[in-house]
Design goal:
five-stranded mixed sheet, two-stranded parallel sheet, globular
Length: 211
């Protein structure tokens, strides 16, 4: 049932955030907590927080990986509008606008602000936040098993024209087991599943998400 949850409410499980859809700058998700998993930063860091439902699911996902002999950790979780603004400015300064737009979101356009997105990596830090993570044992396991715990690989290989971002095998987005399972079967992006426009770049008219 595609209308079960709103795709326009920032606090919704199924909110869709991309280059053409922006979150309010003031939006901060409720119930942010640090999952009980290995963290790349101290638990006091806001970057280690996720919404409660995503946090609980991440704990189960990491535990399942552990049962298969793999060690995953949370590299990045929630990011505020201001934090994303600072990150983006840094990328533009060091890498240039074109590269920055392909690899990082403008403030308000990042899924991390929803508290439902997480960047995971191997505890060994092999290929951390790099495309080669998809070729590691941990990356392959994540691609095959994330949906069982309610997560999708948001920025898939060869889907840049649909998502607006380069392939990110480490970036998972919590949508719940039902939707994640359906999307795993079809291989669709959120834009395709909900019949939304795809934005390879930032359009002149941005859709403002609001509660």
């Amino acid at each position: 049932n595609k209308s079960q949850y709103s795709i326009n409410d920032p606090s919704s499980l199924w909110v869709v955030v991309n280059k053409g859809r922006i979150l309010p700058s003031s939006y901060v998700p409720a119930n942010l907590i640090a999952p009980k998993v290995v963290l790349s930063e101290g638990s006091g860091s806001k970057n280690m927080l996720l919404r409660q439902n995503a946090s609980a699911a991440a704990e189960k996902l990491v535990a399942a990986a552990g049962s298969d002999g793999l060690k995953l950790m949370l590299v990045s979780g929630y990011r505020s509008f201001a934090t994303q603004q600072s990150l983006k400015s840094g990328y533009v300064s060091s890498q240039g606008r074109a590269y920055a737009d392909a690899t990082s979101a403008q403030p308000g356009h990042s899924e991390h602000q929803t508290g439902l997105a997480a960047d995971l990596g191997a505890v060994s830090r092999t290929c951390q936040l790099e495309a080669c993570f998809g070729d590691t044992t941990e990356g392959k396991w994540l691609a095959a098993n994330a949906y069982k715990h309610g997560f999708i690989i948001r920025y898939q290989k060869d889907k840049t024209s649909l998502t607006g971002y380069d392939y990110e095998p480490w970036h998972i987005r919590y949508v719940g087991v039902d939707l994640a399972t359906q999307m795993n079967k079809t291989g669709q992006t959120l834009e395709q599943f909900f019949g939304l426009p795809a934005y390879a770049d930032y359009p002149a008219q941005i859709y403002q998400l609001s509660q």
